[in-house]
Amino acid sequence: MRRPRIAKPALRDIFDRHEGRLIHKVDHYFPIYERHFERFRGTAPTILEIGVAQGGSVEMWHAYFGRGTTTVGLDIEPRSATLARPGRRSHVVIGDQGDPDVLRRIAAEHGPFDIILDDGSHRAEHQLILLDTLWDELTEDGVLLVEDLHTDYWPNYGGGHLRPGTFIERIKPLLDDINAFNSREDSFQPTRWTSTLTGIHVYDSVVVLERGKHQPFTTSMAGRPSFDTVNGLPVSEAISDEHQARMAEMNTPARRIRRAVLNPGLVVDGVRRRVQRHG
Ligand SMILES: C[S@@+](CC[C@H](N)C(=O)[O-])C[C@H]1O[C@@H](n2cnc3c(N)ncnc32)[C@H](O)[C@@H]1O
Fold it and tell me: pTM value?
């Protein structure tokens, strides 16, 4: 007998009911996590979290993503090592996230990662090292989330509005990189980011970068034209032969009757247009 599907609890509910190790999160991050991480639930993802602290978030990720999830935590605090549970796919590495060799070692041992979440030092120089060192250690459709970027605006973290060297300033040129296939200028050409970055999401204190195979965009058509020109060209020139053949199929009497039954308003529109065209 088929078991009834039980809805998975939202991350915020898991957090609110959590009685394990301490977690400390900014409240508005929950819908952001949910939006970008939900698709990994039940897929046994591998997650690298920089910043283990008391170990609470690691427990939360296991509860959220479900069976088979692997978490790898990195922390500079040696006591965090006692929180590892390798038998339960929960690893902790002790090291400095500002050291690219540490990041490379973790990637070699535990990567690639479906999700990389930076909740560590919150220092821009470390976030930049992370971006450059670990971007290629994400899976093909992996996600990098850097949080607590309010520090990019705080002087005691070396931050400030439009201050060169912050993570936020580093992300801004990526808005162009992701569009570089559309360039018509020799001086602006695709980069490694253009072909691997499919989305940039910016929130208060959080940036999410989505990795994926990115190629110059393609277009497709569906349906039938309303007028005798499309994009200023006659239908025969503007619409591919393949789609014109599909349009011919759409015009068979049976298909027209089906459309009229399903949507009588379309028939009225069509008659109105014909009357307008022929006076
Ligand atoms: C905000 S806490 C992490 C909170 C945890 N993710 C949670 O939600 O419960 C930040 C952690 O980053 C660690 N940290 C600070 N600087 C670091 C560095 N350079 N490399 C690695 N970890 C660092 C701290 O020891 C601290 O445990």
Answer: 0.90
